[in-house]
Hints:
Layout: E1 9-14, H1 19-34, E2 42-48, H2 55-66, H3 72-80, E3 81-85, H4 90-106, E4 113-117, H5 124-133, E5 143-148, H6 155-168, E6 174-177, H7 184-194, H8 197-200, E7 208-216, H9 225-250, H10 259-271, E8 281-287, E9 289-291, E10 294-296, E11 314-320, E12 330-336, E13 343-350, E14 370-376, E15 380-388, E16 396-404, H11 405-409, H12 415-425, H13 434-448, E17 454-458, H14 482-485
Parallel strand pairs: 1-2, 1-4, 2-3, 4-5, 5-6, 7-12, 8-17
Antiparallel strand pairs: 7-13, 8-11, 9-10, 11-12, 13-14, 14-15, 15-16
Amino acid sequence: MPVVPVESSLFVILGATGDLTRRKLFPALARLVARGLVGDRFLVLGVGRSSDVDDGTFRATSHDIVESTQPRPIQWCDECVFYQAVRNGEADYQALRERIERIEREHGMPGNRVFYLALPPSAFGPTIDALGRAGLAHSPGWTRLVIEKPFGRDLESAQALNQTAHRYFDESQIFRIDHYLGKETVQNLLVFRFANAIFESLWNRDHVENVRITVAESLGVEQRAAYYEQAGALRDMVQNHATQLATLVAMEVPVAYDAVSIREEKVKALRSVAPIQPQDAILGQYTAGVIGGEMVPGYRQEPGVAPGSRTETFVALKLAFDNWRWQGVPFYIRTGKRFPERLTTIEIAFRRPPVCMFKSLGAPQMHSNLLRIVLQPHEGFSLFFDVKAPGDQVRLKALPLHFEYQEAFGPLPDAYQTLILEILTGNQTHFVHANWVEASWSIYTALLREALDVHPYPAGSWGPDDADRFFPPGTHAARVIPSMAGAGQP
């Protein structure tokens, strides 16, 4: 895809004093500035509820956040960063509009604007409505609206949020951000599949036995109990991140590498998913256990969590893409908190040969060829295949061919840095379309309404024992990177 120049623009962050701005947005913006990727005139207007903050105090805070990228971003903070206090009143949003127009006028800006909603999900709808009523959905240049996940709590709320957004903004203006889609290894899935005929020719029900997706977190709920008690793992991880990975694996070949073509194929794949049966989903909740030699509390002992909470911190389930390519091939998804390690993988298990000619020699059963794609922490992939171990007897051992991104290319860009740059250039390829959001929620809403049992599992384990029918012991070992932990078998 040709490089698109970044036009001068004003980046408006609603929720500028929050955690997302501090941890992700400002560091990413500072890196883009330091590397000269955002043009000569790139301004940031932070918007928050606090009237005790002004331009000076907000700039001082931004200094602390971006000091690791000195010296240019520090000077940029002093010259190009502003703050505006806004609560919920209509007059406040009119004042915001006037402030934006004044900043653009004073700096000779063309009227290109990004409105980034770094807000709690409950504030998305009211804020979009307030922006639209204040006449901020359009400008002399272009206007783009960025919405963080989750996009609704179920199908009905997702449809309502889309309707509110479309009342003022065209779909071409809306960038629903899922930071997983900004990871280089996720974006590489399309290249891996469609630029390498050796894999695409095997990427179907004739050759693939199953697909296993793991999104594992070693951390607990941390300081997010108020949000997590209302969300749970199914809403927080499965409906968006894990399902995005599944559709990238399952989608058909797009006619072109552009946003429209790729999004269409992802939605078509998602619409082919059969309804999930209750017996094909397992929920869990972590109890006290040991991680890294340290005893950690159970979910119900975390600050802010109800003592009798039934919120799931673990989900394992089976998806069935009921289409020509994948009919009969199960896609297993597993995600959870307080796992032994932080790990995100996609595993493609290929079918074994129909006959083992080595049985007559007393050789063990052949292993499945396995393609293991690692999205974090050590991005890369391993392709496991059987070889003869040295010695007089025929003994089969599964060993990997291995590729690691950092070994080949050095450090990878941060996902937010990548996605913010795409927002500024108007590239929607790696953002979520309204149709995808509603198709995804249509799969999971019925499951959310089921009164499924929530099985306990100790922190430091890989989830409840019942999930082993989806992910047998040994499929989740830390040996995904042979250079780090030995080759092992898949």
